[in-house]
Amino acid sequence: MSRIIVDRLVAGYGAVTVLRDISLEVGAGELVALLGVNGNGKSTLLNCILGFIRPRSGRIVLETQGRTVDLLTRSPHEITNLGIASVPEGRRLVPNLTVEENLLLAGGGPRGRKDIAANLAFCFETFPILAERRRQYSSTLSGGQQQLLAIARALMTSPEAIVIDEPSVGLAPIVVGQVIAAIRALQEARNLTILMAEQSFFQAIEVASRAYVLSHGKIIREFDQTSAVGDAEIRNAMMGVG
Amino acid sequence: MLILDLGLNALVTGVVLGSIYALVALGLAITFGLLHIPNVAHPAMVIGGSYAVAISNSYGMDPLVAGVLWAIPFYALGVILYEFYSRSFESRGRGNTLQSLTLFFGISLIIEVGLVVAFGTDLRSIRAGYIGHSLTVGFIVMPYRFLIPAALAPVVIFLLWLYMTRTNTGLAIRAVAYEERALQICGLDPAAIKRHAFGIAMAMAALAGAALVITGPIDPFAGRAHIGRVFAVVVLAGMGTIPGTLVAAILIGVAESFVMTFLSPSWAPGVAFAILLATLGLRPNGLFGALR
Fold this sequence. Notes:
The complex is a heterodimer.
Chain A: E1 2-13, E2 16-26, E3 31-35, H1 42-49, E4 57-64, E5 67-70, H2 76-81, E6 84-87, H3 99-107, H4 116-126, H5 128-132, H6 143-156, E7 161-165, H7 173-190, E8 193-198, H8 201-207, E9 210-215, E10 218-223, H9 231-239
Parallel strand pairs in A: 3-8, 3-9, 6-7, 7-8
Antiparallel strand pairs in A: 1-2, 1-4, 4-5, 9-10
Chain B: H1 2-31, H2 42-58, H3 63-90, H4 97-119, E1 134-137, E2 140-143, H5 144-166, H6 168-176, H7 180-185, H8 190-215, H9 224-237, H10 243-262, H11 268-282
Antiparallel strand pairs in B: 1-2
């Protein structure tokens, strides 16, 4: 069980400041959505949590098994090994490895190694299409299948938390529904802490328990009970008119 | 019948030569084929391995045993060299190919000059019980000094292939040039994987050095004859394939051997280049190249 806390984070590239004073929290076993249209800093925030971008100021900590770990001093692979897995934008699968090899590559790391057989069996059971295509190169899968593989790969590292960046991007609407449903099912089955950035908010708020709305690098709204919020209200918030 | 005899002899010679070429190219199949680092210094490193083996041999050690033992310090050298390369080049400006080429060309010269300063320009050879004897099967005569290193190649390539396909580190080495971020997501440090892979490539240079010095005497510049050929082998095999290296090297060995037998030995060095150019023009992914 782990909790991710972001505290007064400021980050950017060169002279451009992308994130201004971001504070948020993803509680243990919670699925939190990070909403916002393109170019508002969702990916930047996730990449700060994952160690790919060094913020200018602020704090990001992980609370896991009774200890508090400062993530800002860790490199990306160390953060993975602390139990935060990632389903990145663009999926980042290894094109010249097969489906199974992509999974084994993740499962053989320091964290997942001892559970590699059980994790692989779980992934193939949860996503039968991946079992069917296990010997195929990952680059020959359809977009939706690649997204499932990216999610399965995250599970292979035995994570406690998963950071998911735009799972719906580039997918047909019907496939988006399947991918989001899969994320929800996993979150419940394994009691994972999930932070999911999404711009197609209809699906996202259906599965999320809470949501933050990011606009121009700031959190402008926070919804504690997404089920009680109307679509129009969230849409307005995302467009910055709420 | 003479044509048939000559042809068969040329074929066997080509296969044997090709296997040895595969061993010489194997390190480059890792550095260039898998890591995409244009290590033109690899043949010079192989000659460095030959000298190391020759020194051990002068104390009475079997050259193949010496090659295996020298592989360990060569691995460490490779790790250090990669660390230097990555700090001075890759981390700044993301490893411009031209700069890397210049660096490795320089390293190649430094190795050659170092060998000249240390050992002079005289040819250096080794002693072993099987050198000077030949295996005769029918009308085919094959000296053991070619046969033994040629037999080493498939063994080493098979073991390396097992490592690359059956171990987590092997998968990571195959993945690292394509998608570094995937490794980080999997909890692996790409820099550590590349260092390790470069170390293995240098260990292969020690083994290839042993093979080369068994085939005949070498001098500090003997690597130069191999530069074009090792790149031709890796490109013909296809970037990133380990078993393909053996097939490509044997094809090139056989082609050279036939040109030597039926045309003229002076044309032989051009064969590899012709094959390199033809591959780039007709089949840029090589025979067994991974996609992309």
